[in-house]
Fold ABC transporter.
Amino acid sequence: MSEQQGRGTATTLAPMVEVEDVWRSFGSGPTAVHALRGVSFAVGRGELTALRGRSGSGKTTLLNLVGGLDAPTSGRITLDGADLAALDEAGRLALRRDRIGFVFQSFGLIPILSAAENVGVPMRLRKVPAEQRDERVAALLNLVGLAEHTQQRPTEMSGGQQQRVAIARALANEPALIIADEPTGQLDSETGRSVMELLREVVRSEGVTVLVATHDPQLMELADRVVELRDGHIVE
């Protein structure tokens, strides 16, 4: 159901994500659009899995379902042992806050906040004590290579630096899973590769699982596995 690339050792571990016969349709009857058609795959713990496919293949729809931002029309998704269909809205919100970190193509930083303040936002929402929060922020900005840029605002940073801040923010609450949707889409090839290499390092240093959507073949070589979507189907 997927292409194995290089490492692949994490596939022997208990899955962090299990997607079973998932369909997602929009509308009904003959005009219905079937974005996903019976998708099944798993992501092992501590694994960096790349989800590839052309625009319109269903990548973003699938990421939204795994992240609990949307619900499938049918099928089952389990994340870190939790059946998403069994959670109410409050439960899904808690899962996204505590167990999932999101990285977006557009960075999603708050313009008026410094790099350090942006990284600290998720911990503020969890009411983490200030001293503990400041220590975690400093450690994460150091991890992503921005220890000297803590007080800069997004408008004072390059695209690559902004995406590194976004990755640090995604790690703030020590998530089990990071979901990244085309995180290099607005970056040049060299900067994009450095961001993917950072995600690769995050898997090793933080023990986090990463599911990243990309259409850039140069970036897929850094993944443990590549899963291809085409017209809503997993390609064998």
Remarks:
- The first helix runs from residue 59 to 66.
